[in-house]
Write a structure and sequence with these properties.
28 strands, metal-binding, globular
């Protein structure tokens, strides 16, 4: 009895004090090890406040519990805020592992962390409401929400929440491009529930094909799996399904294993087009070698309950393909609440919310948008070139010296990242280097330029502008950045740390957001992964797979999910994938 009490006390202490969980996860292969380390944050100390003091707290309403929102919540440390988290999903999902969930490599509960676990150990006053925001009233600083619970809450399903600051991070929905039959007949892979449905359907297909009263043609149709979209998600799911067939189906369904067919459709000329060409070529060659049928330049024009219609992009030739299951992975679309909000603020023509470089929705000082629902509308340097010239020309001489330009060049690089990228790509350092590019090599260090020459020197800079990809990595970094801004809000009000205001006096309150690309992975099956890391470093093979294991284990949001995921990988190595239809 005493032993049981000691065990319960230890278990409770372990759960409630993540500082006990400072452990190392060591993944070792062939005598060498890759180490993934993550330190759980210590629980915050509760702050006792009077009712009057609590009323003074600024309220932050956070919409969503995805990558951006969760990173924001985990890094917000200023106790002077009252935070309300509103989302129909009461958990955070580690979406990069969803393809692994579809075939039983990882269990669905291993990739989710309840949002209440994330917010309860913070020293900030945080509350969660399981509801969906259906309208944003920016004029009155209110969000209108609707509970998604089955009970009717005594007839009061809708409610309103006031805010001082609003953080919109609701993500995006699947883009069907209004193709007939896609919504009704295809599976998506955006949420945990989608992965669970795909897993059940895969098992159903094999069980149905094993029934004795079917013809071989019908069995072939049922076991034809079609994946639409040759991006990272579509490629990884194809690889996971191929591994499941070759490693587990062979044992579990020996009578139908030879009838399985996997087809990957891509509208462009190559799969993984956002990766290095070496990775694209290797992936296409490996898939063909593995028996996965690749059809590039093939666009889907319609989907029925048993057939999929395609058209070749170049020839226009149409064909019909029978299938047993279709997984649709072709990009993202805007959620209705965001489209409604965009109409209110005059952004009707845009695909997603436009923000400035500080993640504020354009035209608003207290609304921020992160992740897949927004994009940064980076200001062009040529729009401000006259103001930049005037700011640098301190003596109002009408000309600019190299020294005068150097004094503001750091602020220009910080305010306009395309300028720094242009200098880096062309191996330039000063205004003289820019002038040499536009006027030739006969330019001296003592040169003075007028406004027209200055415009000519900067005319090609904006060609370096790039939009950020809609990835978990971008959303996570945006959440961390915005949390740091809120943590330093009061300090930066009196001591701004941002670049010079080109149009106006003083400095911006914060430095603008800068995305730092840390690399990307493309699992290709057979314990092989393609890795593209900063510095044009490309690695393909088994060693990259172990790097993938290490990184994804370390990026889990809690030690609970980290242990679950690693144990799932270990279980799969020993016992294979679970084929139960649960």
């Amino acid at each position: 009895m005493q032993r049981m009490m000691l065990f319960e006390r230890f278990s409770r202490s372990f759960r409630e004090n993540p500082s006990f969980s400072k452990l190392l996860v060591v993944l070792t292969v062939s005598g060498s090890g890759l180490v993934a380390y993550s330190e759980a944050q210590s629980p915050g100390v509760p702050v006792a406040t009077e009712a009057s003091e609590a009323n003074k707290k600024k309220r932050i309403v956070v919409l969503g519990t995805g990558w951006a929102a969760t990173s924001f919540l985990k890094n917000l440390k200023d106790p002077s805020y009252d935070v309300q988290v509103i989302s129909p999903r009461n958990y955070f999902a580690f979406t990069p592992l969803l393809p692994s969930v579809t075939c039983g490599t990882v269990e669905s509960r291993s990739v989710v962390e309840p949002v209440r676990n994330i917010i309860r150990k913070k020293g900030v006053d945080m509350h969660y409401l399981e509801a969906e925001c259906f309208k944003i009233d920016a004029a009155n600083k209110k969000v209108h929400c609707r509970s998604n619970l089955n009970n009717n809450l005594n007839g009061e399903e809708e409610f309103v929440v006031d805010y001082d600051y609003l953080v919109i991070s609701v993500g995006a929905r699947v883009n069907t491009f209004n193709i007939p039959g896609v919504s009704e007949n295809c599976h998506f892979l955006k949420e945990v529930e989608d992965a669970q449905r795909i897993r059940r359907t895969v098992i159903d297909c094999f069980e149905r094909a094993s029934l004795p009263n079917l013809s071989d043609e019908e069995r072939k149709r049922i076991l034809h799996f079609v994946i639409v979209g040759g991006g990272p998600t579509g490629v990884e799911f194809s690889a996971q399904l191929h591994d499941f067939v070759n490693e587990d189906v062979v044992r579990l369904y020996p009578d139908v294993k030879d009838l399985v067919k996997i087809t990957l459709l891509e509208a462009t000329d190559h799969i993984l087009s956002m990766f290095d060409k070496r990775i694209t070529a290797f992936a296409e060659e490996k898939f063909q070698r593995d028996g996965i049928q690749l059809k590039t330049g093939s666009m889907v024009v319609g989907v029925s309950d048993k057939e999929l219609s395609t058209k070749q992009a170049k020839s226009g030739e149409k064909s019909v393909m029978p299938y047993g299951m279709v997984v649709w992975s072709t990009g993202i679309g805007t959620r209705p609440v965001i489209m409604d909000f965009m109409k209110q603020i005059g952004q009707v023509s845009r695909r997603v919310l436009a923000t400035d470089e500080w993640l504020r929705v354009e035209g608003s000082d207290n609304i921020y948008a992160l992740g897949d629902c927004a994009t940064i509308n980076q200001r062009k340097i040529m729009e401000d070139v006259s103001a930049i010239f005037s700011k640098a020309d301190k003596d109002n001489s009408g000309t600019l010296t190299v020294k005068e330009f150097q004094e503001v060049s750091k602020d220009i690089c910080e305010r306009y990242p395309q300028f720094e990228l242009h200098l880096k790509n062309h191996k330039m350092h000063t205004l003289v280097d820019l002038l040499k590019e536009s006027k030739g090599d006969a330019v001296k260090e003592t040169v003075e330029v007028n406004i027209e020459e200055f415009k000519s020197a900067l005319s090609q800079v904006d060609s370096q502008m790039k939009f950020l990809p809609a990835t978990a990595q971008v959303a996570s970094q945006q959440g961390v950045y915005l949390a740091k801004c809120f943590n330093r809000m009061k300090e930066c009000e009196t001591n701004p740390e941002g670049p010079l205001r080109i149009r106006g006096e003083g400095r911006h309150r914060f430095r603008p957001f800068r995305y730092k690309h840390l690399g990307q992975f493309a699992p290709l099956g057979g314990e092989q992964t393609a890795a593209q890391l900063p510095g044009d470093w490309v690695s393909i093979g088994h060693s990259s797979q172990w790097l993938w294991y290490s990184v994804y284990a370390s990026k889990q949001v809690s030690w609970r999910t980290r242990v679950y995921v690693i144990s799932d990988w270990t279980r799969r190595f020993i016992f294979g994938r679970d084929s139960s239809r649960i």
